[in-house]
Amino acid sequence: MTLALRELTLSHFRSHKLARLSLDGRPVVLHGQNGAGKTNILEAISMLSPGRGLRRAALDEMIRKPEAVGWKISAVLQSLHQVHEVETWLEAGSSRQVRIDGKAAAQVALGRIARIVWLVPVMDRLWVEGAEGRRRFLDRMTMSFEPGHADAVLTYEKAMRERNRLLKDGQRDGHWYAALEAQMAQAGVAIIANRKRALEQLLAAQAEAETAFPTAELSLVQPEGADLSEEQDALADDFAESRPRDLLAGRTLVGPHRSDLAAVYAAKGVPARDCSTGEQKALLVSLILANGRALARDFGAPPILLLDEVAAHLDARRRAALYDEICALGAQAFMTGTGPELFDELGARAAHFEVKETNGISEIHEVQP
Residue 270, SS3? Predict the structure, then answer.
């Protein structure tokens, strides 16, 4: 079974005034000079999933200038045995809208019909920077298995913001906190359980595959001294007991928002943060491929993969291995690079497009490999 975009149309999105792609389910190569608008296409596709997209940009930043009339992304999506017409758009001064098969829908509904996973250059430093990026990376993969994870995260973060406001104001009356902490605990245990199930599926998918990419041992860790409860009542008690420390800090110091994703290069026993740049990239690619294999079994089809500048830090052997694994998986992967030679090993197994920028407008032209 297949999960793939068959048609994609961008209107006034970033550098694209009007762009159309007709696709046949094969992987897609987008090559062109830096600044031509390649990543903008991947960002548009990422907006066909819940959330803020691969750049996490403000919605109005995506509006093409100077027209500033808003933007729209339309797609024909084959999802298993069904074909859906999907639209999402922003009118200037309004909020983002979603429509599926002609009917208004919530963003979370996008996650039920399309599973989209991405790897972008800013993630290359994932293992050496702060825990927030690793949590976001894990949550994106978790959402690919459980779309409702997005709702749990939003509910938790909204309640936590309100609790943090009380902490900053120095509010000490427990009645003000109890209801918020109950919401946080309910959503928090769902977040913890979803993340653990996702890790279990990723680890199983890595163990079952023979691949040119290294296996990562993954675990969830807490800040030193923290003991994250997995029962709703116990987690609510943790929040209540932490109030004195939280008041001093002016923010919530315990909870799933403090979790970190730890990874170890299994064959070497070396933490990912201590690996070489190339090894760190290979570990990320390994997890993306494991995510794809696990979803092929869980959802019934591999996810749509968005791989921006994926050839960076991969030698020719691993590049060829990556392309072979994507094709064997049957995933529709959208890959960008500065030159067509980076994708020579794919040949006719992929659709190839050149992206050019002329007078501030991006243009897309199909080319033969």
Answer: strand
Tokens of 24: 């046949």
16: nearest Cα among 24, 8, 26: 8
Q: How far apart are CA 136 and CA 359, in angstroms?
A: 36
pTM comes to 0.92
Cβ neighbours, 10 Å, residue 103: 8
Residues 6+ apart with CB under 8 A from 44: 8, 10, 13, 14, 16, 73
Domain ranges, residue 202: 3-367
Count of structural domains, the chain: 1
Q: 22 pairs with which residues across the strands?
A: 7
Place of tokens 């003991």: 227
DSSP helix/strand/coil, 21:
strand
Q: How far is CA 330 from CA 80, 86, 216, 283, 314, in A?
A: 13, 22, 23, 21, 21
Q: 278 and 272 in contact (C-beta within 8 Å)?
A: no
CB 38 within 8 A of CB 30: yes
Name, in order, each residue with C-beta under 8 angstroms of 290's C-beta and a sequence gap of 6 or more. 202, 203, 205, 206, 209
**Mean pLDDT (whole number) for 202-227:** 86
pLDDT tens, position by position, 238-268: 999 999 999 999 999 999 999 999 999 999 9
Kind of pairing, strands 270-271 and 16-22? Answer: unpaired
Cα gap 339→336, rounded to integer Å: 9
Spatial CA neighbour of 311 closest among 172, 119, 173, 182: 119
305-350 pLDDT, tens digit each:
999 999 877 888 899 999 999 999 999 999 999 999 999 999 999 9
pLDDT tier, 92 (very low <50, low <70, confident <90, very high otherwise): confident
CATH of the domain at 109: 3.40.50.300
Answer positive or negative: Cα dihedral of 305, 296, 24, 76: negative
